[in-house]
Design a protein that fits this description.
Elements lengths: L1 E5 L9 H17 L2 E7 L13 E4 L1 E2 L10 E2 L4 H9 L4 E4 L4 H13 L3 E5 L3 H8 L3 H16 L3 E4 L2 H9 L7 E2 L13 H8 L10 E5 L8 H13 L5 E5 L5 H10 L11 E5 L4 H10 L2 E4 L8 H8 L4 E4 L15 E3 L3 H12 L2 H14 L4 H20 L9 H66 L1
Parallel strand pairs: 1-2, 1-6, 2-3, 6-7, 7-8, 8-9, 10-11, 10-13, 11-12, 13-14, 14-15
Antiparallel strand pairs: 4-5
Length: about 475
């Protein structure tokens, strides 16, 4: 099977969705013999030569200042669509409802392959954060939903994600397809844990809490800080480790200092490590911690919760959140009301019985962790079902005016690019000709000067002889 994976980001940017893409590409090829091609916006100086599959980078614009380090791809790149179409994919799998899905629709027009789409996160919140004008944000969300509805098979990563998508106005059907974990089950080696955490103030016997992810306030991080303030005021010692980066990191550090959880020049009870990309180092932190704090109602899946569980680390989650799906309070995790007081009360109780935390963590490891191998195998089986439906004609959808508009726009962009290329080539030819002409003129002038000098010598010699 030939599978084209599309997303609005890829390495060197590493986030949850990119991690999904990497595992899909890896296991589709390794376990199922599939041929994979990846399409992604181009990042300066990115090198994709080491990958076992081709990566097609297409034109992008620098929007890193307003999108937390992400570039925006130009989906109307006729050259990129042509290169992806030449691969002749049988399945197109888009992991983002923006430029990636527009390219997927253009590619479907070219090769007829069905589009599978996965809804990973609540993109509307990021849109509203980036687009300050309310009407523009509303129209952007509407366009996003329309893009998703144009796909042939829509997947969500949790039941809550599906409900979120419906709340945005999505009219179609969807199915839950879980993401996996690339951590092996079990705790990291003690020597690795010691090496990874060396230099941090982590006294033996003092409870360690952990958060891993983007430093964004909408992930419930202010709630964590307020709860920790209550816990510290009760006299309980602890360490809270935040791993990650994001636009709100400095704001959160200032808040921690205001609450007395950090001191200038000293970490105090809160430690911000910055981003850690090494997967074994992340396993080490999950092994060193006693409890994972993830009070996010934004995340649709909470992959980091499953990664923590793989290391035998239980999580504190908000009851009713997507991340809390399949979690039984007090058995394989902990669920609380969305208040600092509720979290502080649970943490006080947890600090008094660390052995129980580790028992709950063991249950989480045995019950909440799905391997990427199993998840990608389920995806591959679903791909086959989609292809069977296509053969039976069950995927035929009414042609929308937008599909024709997209196709015409792409061709217009392609013709414009060809025109620009021809213009560049003509300019280069003219420049080279002009440079050659100037060199010839300079040679002619030098030759003329030598000729005149020679004439002058002859004249002077002849005049001298006459005298």
């Amino acid at each position: 099977m030939k599978v084209c994976l599309l997303n609005d980001s890829f390495a060197p940017v590493i986030d949850g969705v990119v991690n999904v893409m990497l595992n899909y590409a890896d296991y589709l090829g390794r376990d199922h013999g599939a041929e994979v091609m990846v399409g992604t916006p181009k990042y300066p100086d990115a090198d994709y030569s080491a990958y076992a599959y081709p990566v097609v980078p297409y034109q992008s614009f620098d929007t890193t200042a307003i999108t937390n380090g992400y570039r925006t791809g130009n989906p109307f790149s006729g050259k990129a669509v042509a290169e992806l179409a030449a691969f002749k994919p049988e399945i197109i799998h888009s992991h983002c409802p923006a430029s990636a899905t527009i390219i997927a629709r253009l590619l479907r027009e070219e090769c007829g392959a069905p589009i599978v789409f996965t809804y990973h996160t609540k993109y509307d919140i990021d849109i509203e954060r980036a687009v300050k004008i309310k009407l523009a944000a509303k129209e952007s969300i509407r366009a996003m939903v329309s893009n998703i509805e144009a796909c042939d098979d829509v997947w969500v990563v949790s039941r809550g994600a599906g409900e979120s998508l419906k709340a945005l106005g999505f009219q179609g059907d969807y199915r839950v397809m879980n993401n996996g974990v690339d951590f092996e089950k079990g705790r990291a080696d003690a020597a690795l844990v010691e090496k990874t955490t060396e230099g941090y103030d982590l006294p033996a016997g003092v409870p360690v809490f952990l958060f891993v992810g983007r430093m964004m306030t909408y992930k419930g991080l202010p709630l964590i800080l307020d709860a920790l303030k209550l816990l510290a005021d009760s006299g309980q010692d602890f360490r809270m480790v935040f791993v990650g980066k994001g636009p709100d990191k400095e704001l959160l550090e200032r808040r921690a200092k205001e609450l007395g959880l950090m001191e200038n020049g000293k970490a105090g009870k809160c430690i911000f490590t910055g981003p850690i990309y090494d997967r074994e180092a992340l396993r080490a932190w999950n092994t060193r911690a006693d409890l994972f704090l993830f009070p996010s109602t934004f995340d649709t899946n909470g992959l980091v919760v499953r990664e923590a569980a793989a290391c035998g680390l239980a999580s504190v989650l908000i009851e009713g959140s997507c991340a809390a799906e399949d979690v039984s309070d007090g058995h394989n995790g902990f669920t609380i009301r969305e208040t600092p007081e509720a979290m502080a009360a649970l943490l006080r109780e947890a600090c008094g019985n660390l052995d129980r935390l580790h028992e709950v963590g063991e249950n989480a490891m045995n019950e909440l962790v799905l391997s990427w191998r199993d998840c990608v195998s389920a995806a591959y089986e679903r791909y086959q079902v989609v292809l069977d439906e296509k053969k039976r004609g069950a995927l035929q959808k009414k042609k929308l005016p937008a599909d024709l508009l997209l196709s015409l726009t792409a061709r217009s962009m392609e013709e414009a690019e060809r025109y620009r290329q021809i213009r560049r080539e003509l300019f280069c030819d003219f420049k080279e000709s002009a440079v050659g002409m100037m060199e010839n003129i300079q040679d002619a002038e030098e030759h003329m000067e030598r000729f005149l000098d020679r004439i002058g010598e002859i004249v002077r010699r002849e005049i001298g002889s006459k005298k």
